[in-house]
Design goal:
mainly alpha; Arp2/3 complex 21 kDa subunit ARPC3
């Protein structure tokens, strides 16, 4: 429990450095740009790789910063390309995803198992259940009617997300080590 609380405390201090602030801003911008290239499948289903920037921020700067960036990314994405009415539930989902990635990845060794756990929890709790709940509220469709198709798509995406996330985060760790040695 102590490490859990310490990760939030350390994360809240990450933005005191201008260098960190600029890095977070750049990663958030990259996430926003990645989200612009979503693949719409149906009006209530899209494929996106925007989670990559949020997971990177969570790994580097912790749950507080990643949660803030997840929420800001959702709002800015809506302002740039509004796909339907604004709904604050999706902002909450973005915040929770950032916090989740920060809790699982911040100041920890990046392993395949850790990436699998992060993606499975985020996919099941946020993508399948919470976002489907928001969509059922927003569009007035039954939760149980939306779940099967969304769950099918999200479950198929799990190995793809894990592979891309693990590869990208490992590259970031290697780059970070080389950068600190210079």
């Amino acid at each position: 429990m102590k490490n859990f609380c310490e990760s939030f405390l350390c994360s809240s201090k990450e933005l005191k450095s201008v260098r960190n602030l600029v890095t977070v801003a750049m990663l958030t911008t990259i996430g926003i740009v990645i989200n612009l290239f979503t693949i719409p499948i149906t009006p209530v289903m899209r494929i996106s790789l925007g989670f990559l920037a949020t997971s990177m921020i969570g790994m580097l700067f912790g749950p507080i910063v990643a949660g803030m960036c997840g929420g800001m990314s959702d709002i800015i994405n809506y302002l740039i390309i509004p796909n339907g009415p604004y709904f604050p539930g999706f902002t909450i989902s973005g915040i929770l995803a950032g916090i989740l990635y920060g809790i699982i990845l911040y100041n920890k060794k990046i392993t395949l198992a850790r990436c699998i756990i992060a993606i499975i929890i985020e996919t099941v709790a946020i993508d399948i259940f919470l976002n489907t709940f928001w969509l059922s509220i927003l569009y007035g469709k039954g939760f149980t009617a939306l779940i099967p198709l969304r769950a099918f798509k999200d479950i198929i995406m799990i190995p793809i997300k894990v592979f891309i996330m693990y590869f990208l985060l490992r590259l970031a760790v290697l780059h970070q080590k080389n950068y600190r040695q210079q």
